[in-house]
Structure formats: structure tokens, C-alpha cells
Amino acid sequence: SAGVVVAGAGQAGFQLAASLREGGFRDPITLVGDETALPYQRPPLSKAYLAGKTDREGLFLRPPGFFAEHAIAHRPGLRAVAIDRDARRLQLSDGTGLPYDHLVLAAGARNRPLPVPGAELAGVRQLRGLADADALKEDLAAARAVVVVGAGFIGLEFAAVAAARGVPVTVIEAADRPMARAVSSEMGAFFRRAHAAMGVRFAFGAGVTAIVGRDGRAAGVALADGRELAADLILVGIGVLPNRELAAEAGLPAEDGVRVDAFLATPDPAISAIGDCARFPSPFARGLTPDGTVRIESVQNAIDQGRCLAARLTGKPAAYGALPWFWSDQGPHKLQIAGLSGPGDASVVRGTGDAVSVFRFRDGQLSAVESVDRAGDHMIARRLLAAGTPLTPDQAADPDFDLKGLAL
Ligand code: FAD
């Protein structure tokens, strides 16, 4: 039998392979990945690894021996280039083809390019993989002034690391606050103050029109309002694009992510998709998107989808309904999010000062909880949201209300 072939050896692809073996799957498993390293975790790339607190080995999801031990063929440095659905073959960049019984698309996402002149100059960086992180680390060690384009999670995590090294940092953001797409304005305001306290400067409502070069290297960033900010290191963190081309070119629906059903299957029963590249229906997306589907970029989602698909492929099918959760470490602060919120969701703040949670409500129902340095609230929120336990905004706002009791 040709077994399971996985295109993409990242968090989701690795998890699927490991969970298949755990579930007793006996057929061959092949992980095809275009990176050269063993499968690794990305979160530390903008946190502990960048700050020099974790080494390369600390990133690997399993030691090298794991793959042979579990008969998982890891084929690094190879790209999947096309799917022959009729022949059930995955075409690879070295000209060979791999037959499959089941093909799993786990190709993740790539950084959205900054569409301005000068974006290709030396000193302009993006961060997605280990190679990016190594280059960025080297540049940071020599940097005299840093500009971050985009106040999203990765940009802000990087800004905090750079500021902690004493390098002047300015974050440029088109919206009027940090993490505008992902968190409430209340939580955005908290992190705006927190970053200011770390020495990070912001330019909100600002658009980048060009990267200014000198002697073939980036020397600054030109803004739409005419300002020019000097910088010898520019990190662009303006979001990602799902790697959907393999599916799209094979005739599978893949606008903004490879379309899958609640069981993570594409319309071709021999092909599934998981992780950052997949767009799926979520019970937590009700009222959030027009068709109730989402694409989620998180470790939780990659792991839980890997597990869910492995269960189906070993004869225990179940619809994917895991609660989304996420974290981001920015300087001394830990942001944790449970659930999925939209910009229109109402906010109720619990706690004061340095540690707060923002409870979000959509159509009167709890949709998400954003916590900063309140790990207890986060764990309670995960339970409440997963169980669908009713909570009113008044209860959330009342500091004497026994949230923990409600979650038990
Ligand atoms: P990936 O891990 O990206 O793996 C996909 C793999 O497929 C990659 O190796 C890619 O190179 C490869 N590939 C792509 N196309 C092909 C092809 N055609 N052929 C072969 N291989 C291919 N999430 C959190 O929850 N918390 C965090 O704090 C957090 N921090 C992050 C920090 C950084 C710097 C980054 C980049 C991400 C972070 N994330 C975080 C997100 C999280 O890492 C991703 O959601 C997760 O890695 C998704 O797993 P995946 O397997 O879908 O994609």
C-alpha cells in the first residue's frame, strides 16, 4: 500500500504522522517538507530562540531517532509541486512522484510580501522559518535602529525582544492600535502601554510607501505622511497567505485556504487538509464569518487538526470541534486567548491594573476571553467555552462572581 503522504513537515503534518502511529496505523507514512531541518516548533522563533534563550535542538518537535523508530519517512528539502489526482501521485521538485492512498495538505502559510519599492533590500526581513530567524538574529545583533512594519503578534514579539536589547524600535501600523484584527480595543490599549513602557515607539494610522536604501542596504522607511524613519533593520510582519496553490491547481476549492468539511476532507475523498493552510467550518465561528468557516494560524489548531484527521484515518471519524486557543509572549507579558472573537463583539473587562481579562460577547453569548497575565482566567475560559456554559456580561463584570465555580 502507498499509505499516507503529507505535503508539509511542520506542526500539523508532524502531529498527523505521530498520531497515526499512536493510533495503530500500519501503512507507510511519508512527510515531504521543503525545509531542511527536522520538524520544529515556530513560536520560539520570535521569542526565546530570537532572544538566545533556547538553542536549535530546543525547537525540534522530536529527536532525530523518533522518525526511524516510528517508521515515518521524513524527506527534507523536497517540494511538492503538483497533484495528479487520477493517478494518486504527488509530484516532487526532484522530478520524482510519490504514490498515495491518502494525501494530506499541511503546507502552512507564507508571509505576505510588502508591496513597496525597496522591499528586497538587504536589512529588510520577514520571519516564518528557522532560516529567517537565524538571519534576523544576526542582523539584530548589529542593528542600531529597528523599524517593525505591522503591529501583529510577530511584529510585537520581535519589537519586545529588540527593545530588551536596548535597540531603538518603532512599530508602524496602518490601523489605530496594536493587534487590531485579533484582540479588543481594551487589550490593544493594554499592550500599547506595555510596549511604551518597554521603550517601543509606535506610528499608528501610518502607511509605508517605500524602503529607502543607501549603498544597497536598507537605511530607512518612508511613510505616506512624508516622514522618513531611519532604520538599518526592518522587520515586515503584515500577515500571511495560506499555501493553497497545490490544491487550487489540482482543481480543489481553495480561495483563502484549502476548503475542507467538518471532517477536514476536501471534495476529493483521498485528499485532506490541516493546519494554517486549511479553511474549515467551526462551531466557534457562528456569526463571525458569512459561511461559518475560518482559517486559524495557531499551534493548537495545527495539533488538534492533526489528531482529528489521524483519528479518521484510523477508523474513528469525528467532526473537528476543538476550542481555538492561542498565546503570545511580549516582553514580560503573556497574552492568552480562548475562543474566536470578531471586531463587533462586546467587551467586559475583569481585573485591574497589570493583569486583566477581556470577556467578549457576540449576540449575548461568550465568544472569547483575552487574558494578560491571568492564566487562571484563561483556563477557566477554555472550560466555559468548550462546554458552552452560559455566562452573562454582568456576571463576567462582577469581581465577586465565582467564575471558577461555574467552570467546575
Ligand atoms: P507550518 O508549521 O508552517 O508547516 C508547513 C510546512 O510546509 C513548512 O515547513 C513549509 O515550508 C512546508 N511547505 C510549504 N509548501 C510546501 C510544499 N509545496 N512542499 C513541501 N513542503 C511545503 N502559534 C501559536 O499558537 N502561538 C504562538 O506563540 C505562535 N508564534 C509564532 C511565531 C512565529 C515566528 C511563527 C512563524 C508562527 C507562530 N505561531 C504561533 C503559528 C504556528 O507556528 C503555526 O500556526 C503552525 O506552525 C502551523 O502549522 P502548519 O503545520 O499548518 O504550518
In short:
Helix content is 24%, strand content 28%. The chain is α/β, with parallel strands linked by helices.
Question: Could you walk me through the main structural features you see in this protein, from its secondary elements to its overall organization?
Answer:
There is one protein chain. The chain is α/β, with parallel strands linked by helices. Helix content is 24%, strand content 28%. It has a 5-stranded parallel β-sheet with strand order 3-2-1-7-19. The longest helix is centred in the C-terminal third of the chain and has 15 residues, at 299-313. The mean pLDDT is 97. Bound molecules: flavin-adenine dinucleotide. Residues 7-13, 32-35, 42-43, 45-46, 79-80, 106-108, 127-128, 154, 243, 246, 275-277, 297-300, 302, 326-328 line the site of flavin-adenine dinucleotide.
